[in-house]
Write a structure and sequence with these properties.
Blueprint lengths: L4 H14 L2 H13 L6 H13 L3 H13 L6 H13 L3 H13 L6 H13 L3 H13 L6 H14 L3
């Protein structure tokens, strides 16, 4: 089997599904050492595996490395990074990724915006969580059980129910 970006992408994605974040990062590092160009797909899979393993700081480092390597981020990249921040209780970083997505003209969907809402709500920033919910309504982004529950919880925390 040839060691190229396609095989590495597949291996990292398999690690993501299996929860093997450390192996995924080793493979990701091997890409650079083997002079294999990083792709958006590989970066997304590596960030996602870190997010699922509660390794949000590592996910942030991968996102930064992606930018330095001029690898294009997409809706999956930003959503995974925001979800990682939400799991790490870092609402400030979640909102920074939200700004990055908007500056890059990336239109986030329900998952990324709900994760940003949740990060704010968990961080005691209930007004910001509700503001994001209102933006979802205005932008006609589908809301789901998570976004409604976060909005309700934010109202409760803010005494706005």
């Amino acid at each position: 089997v040839e060691f190229n970006s396609i095989t590495v992408n597949a291996l990292i994605s398999s690690c993501e599904k299996g929860g093997e974040w450390e192996v995924a990062l080793l493979l990701f590092g091997m890409m650079a050492r083997s002079k294999i160009e990083s792709t958006t797909i590989a970066c997304n899979a590596a960030i996602s595996v870190c997010e699922k393993a509660d390794q949000w700081r590592v996910a942030l480092l991968l996102f930064e490395a992606m930018a330095k390597s001029n690898v294009e981020c997409d809706v999956i990249t930003c959503s995974a990074a925001i979800s990682a921040c939400e799991k790490g209780n870092s609402w400030v970083n979640a909102l920074q990724f939200l700004r990055t997505a908007r500056q890059s003209s990336i239109r986030l969907h329900t998952i990324g915006l709900s994760a940003a809402m949740s990060a704010c709500e968990k961080g005691g920033e209930w007004e910001k969580a509700l503001q994001l919910f209102c933006e979802m309504v205005q932008s006609r982004v589908d809301r789901n059980t998570v976004s409604f529950n976060v909005a309700i919880s934010a109202c409760e925390k803010g005494g706005e129910w």
